[in-house]
């Protein structure tokens, strides 16, 4: 008796179903299809003369690479077991702009491994762009001393002499300024409060807003994001560079925004329009896009957040009456005891 073999079409169908099930299972495992996380280079393995590179955005959403060289490691610079890597930036763009406000958080790679985040700049006029790098261990895992909440006043770094690096006597490192982006404000208003804002390590910058997009939350290292303080008919947002993204966790800035400690503040995507070069202080001009999650901590060595729904804000409605006209404005402001 002749027995019919399996139908070849059924075998193909079974293979296709198995393949579909395999990929469906992969999609259910977070990060399986994502790019592999880079290797980490501990600060203990960093030596003077090492060549590396960093990523940041100068215009548009194009992440660009620039070179750098390690000048040395400043042990215990920020505190016990909190060192800083001193580097010299190289390349036509960074040699033209110097260290740019908004560049803090730019991921730094040495020997192809993630070594840290740009966070500090030399606070004197120098021919070469010199920067400080927060070691990556302190960005991803802030030291215990930086976990405790500290008061809001300006974060300062004590003056230091870097004779071994060939820098001028009295040179000091200070945090790279964070652009505080104002949209819907008169230029005269910004000028009126610019000095007070600068006292907190921020630079008042006029910017715009763009419509939210589903792509806003698709962050990678080198993109820009920040805190939402006010949104609506006028907005105020900070803007830093993203150092790393691990699952839904985002690490940026490489230094504090206002040293607020553990927080629940909205996080928004930022898009760079251009980089304004200046001998005094170069800065990124940005548009702020949609909210993409929650800033969860603001500590000495990093600002961190989580992608997802943003926290609630406080609604504020204003009615302005003048002669025969009336203007109604709607805002939402951040809900935090030290800010509101």
From TrEMBL:
It holds the Pfam family Peptidase_S55. Residues 1-155 form the Peptidase S55 domain. It comes from the Bacteria. This is Peptidase S55 domain-containing protein. It comes from Candidatus Acidiferrum panamense.
